[in-house]
Specification:
Its cofactor is Mg(2+). Belongs to the ATP-dependent AMP-binding enzyme family. GO terms for molecular function: acetate-CoA ligase activity. Keywords: Acetylation, ATP-binding, Ligase, Magnesium, Metal-binding, Nucleotide-binding. There is one protein chain. The chain is an alpha/beta fold and 649 residues long. It has 21 helices and 33 strands. The structure holds 5'-O-[(S)-butoxy(hydroxy)phosphoryl]adenosine (WT7). 5'-O-[(S)-butoxy(hydroxy)phosphoryl]adenosine (WT7) binds next to helix 12, strand 21, strand 27 and strand 28.
Amino acid sequence: MTEKTHKVLKAARKRALIDNDTYLSWYRQSTKNPEKFWNKHGKRIDWFKPYTKIKNTSFSGKVSIKWFEDGVTNVSYNCIDRHLKKRGSQVAIIWEGDNPYDDKKVTYNELYEQVCRLANVMKSNGVRKGDRVTIYMPMIVEAAYAMLACARIGAIHSIVFGGFSPDALAGRIVDCDSSFIITADEGLRGGRTIPLKENTDKAVEIAGKNGVAVKNVLVVRRTGGSVGWVEGRDIDYQKAIQAAKPECPPAKMKAEDPLFILYTSGSTGKPKGVLHTTGGYLVYASMTHQYVFDYHDGDIYWCTADVGWVTGHSYIVYGPLANGATTLMFEGVPNYPDAGRFWDVVDKHQVNIFYTAPTAIRALMGAGDDFVKRASRKSLRTLGTVGEPINPEAWEWYYHVVGEEKCPIVDTWWQTETGGIMITPLPGATDLKAGSATRPFFGVQPQLVDGDGNVLDGATDGNLCIVDSWPGQMRTVYGDHERFVQTYFSTYKGKYFTGDGCRRDEDGYYWITGRVDDVINVSGHRMGTAEVESALVSHDKVSEAAVVGYPHDIKGQGIYCYVTLMAGEKGNETLRKDLVKHVRQEIGPIASPDKIQFAPGLPKTRSGKIMRRILRKIAEDDFGSLGDTSTLAEPAVVDDLIENRQNKQ
Ligand code: WT7
């Protein structure tokens, strides 16, 4: 396969912080002597007490990851206080509402006051260092205040995306034993409201039945919609803030004190609470934000993610604010009021750096170029993508139509677990190839291995591992270190296994090919097939379910469910609709099945293992090459599955 290379753009090279020689020399230093490299770059954040220890990490045995461990700092201090002298009146957050006429700007001075007030509200309600605070909020500035207020007092936040159901929210509240929740009356997206408070009320009830008593629910009024109110438990945000003091000293946090938990799906079991800590995380998030986007002082930066995902944590809030940037927070969706919204907002706020997901690019590409061209987009300088592989057609459209061949595209590969960007081009340093995440960031040592763990060299396909630690790495699964070791370090002993397949080409460029485990990626949202399966079998008419991904033009992958019913039940449209509703209730709208196939049986080996390889092929309508089916217990079930497949071309 030969790919067209787009040379580094002259304009990008001229202004870039890092050119190719610098990249190569820094990369060499970062892997040859990580201690020396990170000693230097750890100083990019302010420390109350400087570290003397830098790296203390092991991927073997019990697995222990510590960075800058004797240093003392505070994330909120680094994201706010240290900027006040120089840029107190600079805008920290530009908020763009769902409604295009609704926006506001928050300066660093204002951010300081709001975060301090909220921190005091939390303190006066008994929230202490180390307590877990659940944040279930729309994309409003108060979500960022909530994160930073937690960081300020040393509480650990756990953000749950607003698209999750009360059940899913309750599961996360219970898992980390969180008794303080911050939410809003309703969210607003694409003109539609989302009943966040109502969902929270239900979740609190479920959590109570599962042994976790929620003490307080702090409610921001976003829409003013009417919501239930529990006296003594619920607190009106605006009222409480007004009564609170506008100063709150930042807590002294050790580098390895937890900053946040973020739940993410894996190939088995319930979602895991990915735990990130303070010092290393902030060093890594801020450094990647600066170099990957070639961020310069004064730039207007926009990442379209939601704070419910790790991208929102690292690249809407922590990375940009630690760098004193102006970060844009968008409440709405890409196609409301119409498919030109992104580009209108770029013009309106003169955005220089724009970071979004391939699924959005594909959807907007489908709406036609006129929506793009009606905006000037003159301010744009760097474009980025994240979340899933970007197909070359979408990449080229982004490059030629949106960026008019003037903006490098940084295709950034990383994960909730990695805390920050791992494999990516740097705008002024890296020649681009459409669809490749290109080369590792400083300190990141990728390795490709085969199924048996043999290391593969040169141009090859393999499973992507990282062989040494980087400061932004997750430290553990909250409350279950053994699961951390099992999930990430046991497939290939002594290595961090990403779960992704990957190709390395003759230039040493990396091309992520997608998950090799039972995780699917739907519109950049990560979903465990096991979770959807367990939601399906919890329906009283379902006996067994198997879920696989299949290629979807816009979403990247769609959710395909094979369902066998209890004896006597019949599969029909009504039941299909009911099952979709059921999954939405159990997990949330983001897990809505795209296809449901009723099947009399699933293909299993004689030992009872479902042969997913076959199910994937049938879902892809590619059943000519099913491979060896001779080990199946009942080969005949396959004929029925093929006959009744839902993706017939
Ligand atoms: C999985 C991680 C990291 C923020 C958003 C997703 C896939 C992510 C890319 C990319 C190809 C990508 C991988 C990864 N992924 N970025 N640039 N190219 N694949 O975070 O929910 O933790 O999902 O997303 O499969 O393992 P996440």
